[in-house]
Amino acid sequence: MSIDYTNIDGGVNKLVLKFDADANVPVSPATDLAAWNTLFGLPDILKGFSFNAVTYDSTIVEVTLWGGFLNVLNDGLSTDTHLISVYSNKGQQFDALSNLSNATSFNLPQALSFNSRCFQDCTSITKFSFPKGINFDVQCFDGCDAATHFILPQGRYFGEECFADCEATEVLYLPKAESLGTDCFDGITGQDITLTIPAALELDANVVYLQANNNVTLILT
Question: What pLDDT was estimated at residue 10?
């Protein structure tokens, strides 16, 4: 089964998870719908409605719910070193994807909010791009030391140590940023970086730190 990102019905919430091997899918059998709902704590007033369908083929699990909403919060995915990609077509809030050390893709086109430590120590992914993301909370990307590009065109709020120790950073595209938390770029040193931010943040202490410790090309919006 291939992952089809184009065939999305308006009323369907899809969560597609790809694992590195059949034996490492956390639910057995992988088609056990009730077990997937238990893993994600569904139904829940904040997390969403229950899944009502599951398909599985060759390391790829697709769980869906018709209508309602789905947020990936406090679930069993965090620290799963066998998970290599996550796709959610409609999920808007996430906070449980940290320590996925072998994950190489997070495709979350409708996501608006990423809670504290959402992607902390996801050490294999090289690019984060969230077209609608607005809020990126404390230590959201902390320790993502392979990531070179952060493309966050709608991001407004970036919490304390949001990008701390992202040692491979080359591009920070934050053209609508309004607030950078304390030590937002802590630990990023010795890099050639292109930073895009609003002119109002040019003298922000975080920007000054980044410029003092890196070769920064500053683009003001």
Answer: 56
